[in-house]
From TrEMBL:
GO terms for molecular function: hexosaminidase activity. One of its GO terms (cellular component) is nucleus. Homodimer; disulfide-linked. Coiled coil: none annotated. SUPFAM superfamilies: (Trans)glycosidases. The gene is LOC108084844. InterPro entries: GH, HEXDC-like. It comes from the Eukaryota. Has hexosaminidase activity. Responsible for the cleavage of the monosaccharides N-acetylglucosamine (GlcNAc) and N-acetylgalactosamine (GalNAc) from cellular substrates. Has a preference for galactosaminide over glucosaminide substrates. This is Hexosaminidase D.
Length: 707
């Protein structure tokens, strides 16, 4: 034990000498100071000699302190060097360790083995990532604070300019006057649910309700058409896949639980195809060959419409809290204050023998007032809403003379960006003189094409933002103002039309426009905009002004890549629709290139069965692969859409969007097979096709000579 101690002291002799020397000098310096401070001072002033001696002593003390500091620093450096050398010696393999498997052990006390040097760097990359993320968050927080401070110092005009610049970066339409300091949002924000021939499952619709409420919706505008469970003599009006009364009651009560009002929509003039197409109701048509419009001059027409309105209104009133003989009172009453009776796009009016004796405007206004009077007499608590398009061409005197303003409220609908192109200021003035209040209607899908697959989000957002400006400007004309805005989402253009964009595919457009309308402007700050949270988007926005915008609508007006990382109800259908859209566009270009732009699969080659087999094989080699890809996408559509729709809607979607392209590919493949079967070909010139000659009226030289 003693020998080990002496060896340790000898190896660190220089360090000990430096430390001892430093301690001795420190002791001498301390003793000198104590002697100097404890010496008695004479009562008189110090002489010049004594003052000089005192200054010399202070200088000596300062010099000693400096020397001690240098010695301590040198000692620390020596100790550090000794420690590093000892570590190196411990790491170097000793001769004993080089003996291989021979091991010499000596008993030692149990100690925790030190970690290898390399282990201190374990998870170093993860640690650096965490530090980098923390630093980024600090920077973002500081950037946000700086932005907030900058905005606080800006004037209102400067804030608006900065806001519009950010909108341009994001691809969001800029409308003058709409911004954080602009007008207030509309009081009512209704979301239109169109059920025409494609009813979403009630379970899916119920999942949307909390999202709609969270983003600012105040109610629903439900257009049932043939999906309402009509009964009795009206039972044929209901489609075979219409909702059951219990399902509908459950949905309405769920809407009430989320604080949403309900405005049912029942068509009562135009768009009556779902009724007038049926046997037993065709005699009520305005024209025999068209089931679009009902004839208002027939007494049976009003009786039918009154029965339809009664069944729809009574079911909704039962959900207000009134128990009936067949159902108990609901757990939560709904807000049911208005009913919408349609009356838009009455394309065939005043054409039957009886109706021709009256003016079209008189026919329309008389029919609307009669229906509204019936509703007011039966249910005086309900207001009546109609679409406004049939009123636009009428004069102020015609409207005032009919007293239609005392019975209904118009819902002014325009889905384009230029609203004043359709509703001029003088028309707003006319409406304000006739109606105490009115509604407005925009669109989030089903307005820019009869059979689109994905709605153009940017166009719909611009339509809604421009409506905010119009409501703020024109609302003051009306005695009771504009009540609110309905965001329509059409499922079909009419009863006979194919499907528009599906509801799950239109959800990003709906939620973006709804959050904008509810706030009164589009919020460029992702922390103020509820869109990311409600749609459950896995996205970390960059709060820097110079960073990448969190929403970008420039590359594709249909959608933003943001919504591809969200997980809202129906998000898989939306992502599938984007892939299908791209695949169909790819195949469309492929078919156009092989059929219309190639020189070997053109109509001329097909008519004359004259082409190069080598080229035909090259042009059709991808066709079987594309057919199989579309078949796989059809099966995928069936799996995904089954969560939202019934089998009939799923089948219609596949037949409308996928099957025609498969058929076109199969026709191209069959044409190629026909061209490949030929082994010999005629000499040129090829004869003129007889059918083409007859259709075009062409005459050959031989025929001219014969004539």
């Amino acid at each position: 034990m003693h020998s080990n101690l002496w060896i340790f002291i000898w190896r660190r002799k220089l360090s000990f000498l430096l430390v001892v020397s430093g301690l001795v000098l420190l002791g001498l310096w301390t003793w000198a100071i104590l002697i100097d401070t404890t010496a008695p001072q004479p009562p008189g002033a110090l002489s010049s000699t004594e003052r000089l001696q005192q200054q010399q002593q202070q200088a000596t003390g300062y010099q000693q302190v400096h020397i001690i500091q240098k010695l301590i620093a040198q000692a620390n450096r020596v100790l550090r060097a000794e420690r590093l050398r000892d570590n190196a010696v411990e790491k170097a393999p000793s001769p004993v360790q080089r003996l291989g498997n021979v091991r010499f052990l000596r008993p030692t006390q149990a100690k925790k083995a030190p970690l290898p040097m390399s282990e201190s760097y374990l998870f170093e990359q993860e640690r650096l990532k965490i530090l980098e993320q923390q630093q980024r968050q600090r920077n973002a927080g500081m950037e946000e604070l700086n932005n907030a401070e900058d905005e606080r110092m800006l004037s209102s005009a400067e804030r608006q300019t900065q806001y519009e610049h950010e909108l341009q970066r994001m691809g969001v339409p800029v409308v003058a006057g709409i911004g954080p300091d602009g007008p207030r949002a509309p009081a009512e924000r209704l979301v239109h649910i169109d059920l025409k021939g494609a009813p979403p499952k009630i379970s899916f619709l119920k999942q949307l309700l909390p999202m709609l409420r969270a983003l600012g919706a105040t109610g629903l505008l439900i257009e049932y058409e043939d999906m309402f469970p009509y009964s009795g003599a009206l039972q044929p009006l209901a489609a075979h896949n219409a909702y059951k009364e219990e399902e509908l009651r459950d949905f309405l009560e769920c809407a009430a639980l989320h604080g949403l009002s309900v405005m049912p929509l029942v068509q009562t003039f135009g768009h009556m195809e779902f009724v007038l197409k049926l046997s037993g109701f065709e005699q009520l048509r305005e024209l025999t060959e068209s089931p679009q419009s009902i004839c208002p001059s027939q007494p049976q027409s009003m009786a039918l419409l009154e029965q339809m309105l009664t069944q729809v209104i009574e079911l909704h009133l039962q959900c207000l809290g009134h128990a009936t003989q067949t159902s108990a009172a609901p757990s939560a009453p709904i807000r049911f204050t208005h009913i919408h009776i349609g009356c838009d796009e009455v394309q065939r009016m005043g054409e039957c023998s009886v109706c021709r004796q009256r003016l079209r405007s008189e026919l329309f206004l008389s029919h609307v007032v009669s229906l509204a009077h019936f509703i007011r007499r039966q249910w005086p608590q309900l207001g009546v809403v109609i679409w406004d398009d049939q009123l636009r061409s009428m004069s102020l005197s015609e409207l005032q003379h009919s007293q239609v303003g005392s019975y209904v409220e118009p819902m002014v609908w325009v889905y384009a960006s230029d609203i004043y192109h359709f509703i001029q200021p003088q028309l707003w003035d006319t409406y304000a003189k006739v109606f105490p209040s009115a509604w407005a209607a925009s669109a989030f899908k089903g307005a820019f094409g009869e059979s689109l697959l994905v709605p153009p989000l940017q166009h719909h957002l611009e339509n809604n933002i421009r409506w905010l400006a119009v409501i703020a400007k024109e609302g003051g004309r009306f005695a009771k103002g504009l009540r609110g805005l309905a965001l329509t989402g059409w499922q079909r253009y009419d009863h006979f039309a194919v499907l528009c964009e599906l509801l799950p595919v239109g959800i990003p457009s709906l939620m973006t426009s709804l959050s904008t309308v509810a706030k009164g402007y589009f919020s460029t700050n992702p922390r103020d905009n509820e869109l990311l949270r409600v749609l459950q988007c896995i996205f970390q926005p960059d709060s820097r002004r110079s960073g990448r915008p969190w929403l970008e609508l420039h590359p594709n007006a249909h959608h933003s890549q943001l919504f591809a990382v969200c997980s809202y109800p129906g998000h898989m259908v939306f992502k599938y629709a984007l892939r299908l859209f791209d695949k169909l566009a790819e195949i469309r270009i492929y078919l156009e290139k092989t059929r219309d732009q190639s020189a070997w699969l053109s109509d001329y080659n097909v008519r004359h069965n004259f082409s190069s087999p080598l080229r035909v094989r090259e042009l059709t080699v991808r066709t079987p692969v594309l057919i199989e890809e579309l078949r796989a996408m059809a099966r995928e559509a069936q799996q995904l859409l089954w969560e939202v729709y019934d089998e009939y809607t799923v089948t219609e979607f596949v037949e409308q969007h996928i099957y025609p392209t498969i058929a076109a590919l199969q026709r191209q493949l069959a044409i190629g097979e026909t061209l490949l079967q030929r082994r010999t070909w005629p000499q040129r010139p090829l004869p003129l096709a007889l059918k083409l000659q007859e259709d075009m009226g062409l005459v050959t030289n031989q025929q001219e000579q014969q004539q």
